[in-house]
TrEMBL record:
Coiled coil: none annotated. This is Permease. Keywords: Membrane, Transmembrane, Transmembrane helix. The chain crosses the membrane at residues 12-30, 42-62, 74-94, 115-136, 142-163.
C-alpha cells in the first residue's frame, strides 16, 4: 500500500500541510495583534494558509536545485523566490477572482500593489530561517511517522483541503456577486432587504445578521483589501447592519 505514492512526493505534501499551518499561526498572530481581536486569517476556513505551504515547498525545492551555483547566487535566488511567488500569486488571484485579495498600494516601494519592499524583506528573512532551521526539523519529524501513518495523514489532509478549498472558492465568488448586487441597489437608490429575513429582537444587540451578510464575513475577515471597496456599499444597508459591520471591520 505505502509504495503507491513516492516517498518524496508524500513528504513534500505533508511538509506543505505543516507549513500551511505554521503560516496560519503567523497570520493569526499578526492580524489579531493589529486588529486587537482574534482574526481567523487566510483563504480557508480551517487553520491553514496554503500560500505559505506553496511558498515553503517552492523555496525548499529551489534552494536544493541551486546548490550547484556559487553560494551568493544560490542565496540571492532563494531569498527572492518568496517575493516572486507572492507577485505571481497575486496576479493569479486577480485573474481567477477579478479581485485583489491583498494590496500593497498604500505602502512605499510596491509593484502593482502585489509586492512591496517591506514584506519582501520579511519573506527573505523567513526564507533563510526556513531552509536553515525549520525545513530540516519538519522533514525529520515527517520521516518519523513511517510509511503507513504518512499515507493515512496525507489522505485525511488531502480530503480536508478539497472540501475546504471548494467551500472557500465559492465564498469568494459569492462575495463578488453580492458586492455587484449591492452596487446595483445603490445605483437605483434602494436599500438591502434580506430574502431570508432576520431573526432576533428588535434591540440592535440581539439581532442576527441575515444569511447573505453572514456569508460575506469570512472574505472580509480574511482579506482586509476587500474592505476598501466594500465600505462604499455600507449606505445600502439598514442602520443596524451597517453599524454591526462598521464595528467589526472599520473601528
Amino acid at each position: 500500500m505505502y509504495t503507491m505514492i513516492p516517498q518524496k512526493l508524500l513528504s513534500y505534501f505533508l511538509y506543505f500541510g505543516a507549513m500551511s499551518f505554521v503560516g496560519w499561526i503567523i497570520e493569526v498572530l499578526y492580524r489579531s495583534s493589529k486588529e486587537k481581536r482574534f482574526v481567523n486569517a487566510g483563504f480557508l476556513s480551517g487553520p491553514f494558509v496554503p500560500i505559505y505551504g506553496f511558498g515553503a515547498v517552492i523555496i525548499t525545492a529551489i534552494h536544493v536545485e541551486v546548490q550547484s551555483l556559487p553560494a551568493v547566487t544560490a542565496w540571492v535566488i532563494t531569498l527572492l523566490s518568496p517575493t516572486i511567488l507572492e507577485y505571481f500569486g497575486g496576479w493569479l488571484m486577480e485573474t481567477l477572482f477579478g479581485m485583489k485579495l491583498w494590496d500593497y498600494h498604500e505602502r512605499r516601494f510596491n509593484l502593482s500593489g502585489r509586492i512591496c519592499l517591506r514584506f519582501s524583506i520579511y519573506w527573505a528573512f523567513f526564507a533563510a530561517l526556513l531552509v536553515l532551521f525549520i525545513q530540516p526539523r519538519v522533514f525529520t519529524r515527517i520521516m518519523v511517522l513511517g510509511p503507513y501513518l504518512s499515507h493515512f495523514v496525507a489522505g485525511g489532509l488531502l480530503a480536508y483541503f478539497i472540501v475546504d478549498i471548494d467551500h472557500s472558492v465559492k465564498s469568494i465568488f459569492n462575495f463578488k456577486t453580492f458586492q455587484k448586487d449591492i452596487a446595483a441597489l445603490i445605483e437605483k437608490g434602494k436599500e438591502f432587504h434580506s430574502v431570508f429575513g432576520f431573526s432576533g429582537d428588535m434591540d440592535d444587540k440581539k439581532l442576527k445578521l441575515p444569511m447573505e451578510v453572514r456569508r460575506i464575513l469570512k472574505p472580509l475577515n480574511a482579506f482586509p483589501s476587500l474592505r476598501r471597496n466594500f465600505k462604499e456599499k455600507l449606505p445600502a444597508f439598514p442602520d443596524w447592519i451597517r453599524k454591526h459591520l462598521e464595528k467589526r471591520f472599520w473601528k
